[in-house]
Amino acid sequence: MLRLSAIDHDDFGSTRSKIVNGIDSESSERDHSEKPVPTFSHPALAQSDRGEPDISSGGSVIDQGRSFLAICILLFIASTIATVTICLTMAQMGEVPMAGGWSMSTAWTPLCGGSWFAAAAAFLGMWALMTTAMMLPSLTPVLWRLREHAAAAGAARPGLFAVLAGFAYILVWSALGLAIFAGGALLLEAALRWPLLARAVPLAAGVVVIAAGLFQMSQWKLAMLAHCSHVAGQGAGAAAAIRRGLRLGLSCCASCAGLTTLLLVGGVMDLRAMAILALAITAERLAPAGGRVARATGGLMLGAGAVRLARALWLL
């Protein structure tokens, strides 16, 4: 009995080892026959999916977005501080009184001993800084989309693409500022020379504000407003960036014609007017119902123009 039990025990051990070995071999064959789990074929995609920096792009999209936003915020703060400083400095220099009870800033004329070139350069610098501070909050998302389009088109440095587009955008606004300075200087000289013309300016200002309000509520204004966020285009080089920035600047200048007119009538150095118009511009571009914001702003402009016109008629 003892011998038979030993034999049975040995047979059981060998049988057990055969079964275990068979299971291991079948498991190994099944593992080799199964398909591998699909992974990202491109290492940059796999890394960007985890938010890690990749070699081809120089960093994750999230990190690049944060850096881009930080630069825009710093630029906004710097331009705002510079604009406020210049406006406060110009306010201390006083204004030129005109017949009819109104006045013009000394920014429209050379200072004592100064030249017209120096006056134009000073106004243009102030205008460029003011435009940057007022337009950058609504321009930042557009520049980021331009950067994304450039990256998708294969641009080697999409950040530089956005910088060039922004520079071209401000260049268009600077050209408009130069034309505005020329018109303001001519108005100043004409008002000083002909008092009758100066007395008619308040009346004309009321009419101009009403016209600006009607423009603000027009379909053409809404069409130009839609073009202010349009970033589609071909090319990813420097020429394409400048071309898109110029086109974007022209569309925004046309869209802001009514609000720019209101700023000029109310006082180009008025910080409160700048802040209110900057909020209006940002709201009509970034709000979901931007068209309604534009129309509401136009209605307020109509009311302001009517009040200004009635006051001018009363003082005649």
TrEMBL record:
InterPro entries for this protein: PpoB2-like
Annotated transmembrane regions: 68-94, 114-139, 160-188, 194-215, 248-269
Leader sequence segment: none
Keyword list, A-Z: Membrane, Transmembrane, Transmembrane helix
Region of interest: Disordered: 13-57
Pfam families: PpoB2 (PF09948)
Keyword Transmembrane helix: yes
Name of this chain's protein: Predicted metal-binding membrane protein
Organism per entry: Bosea lupini
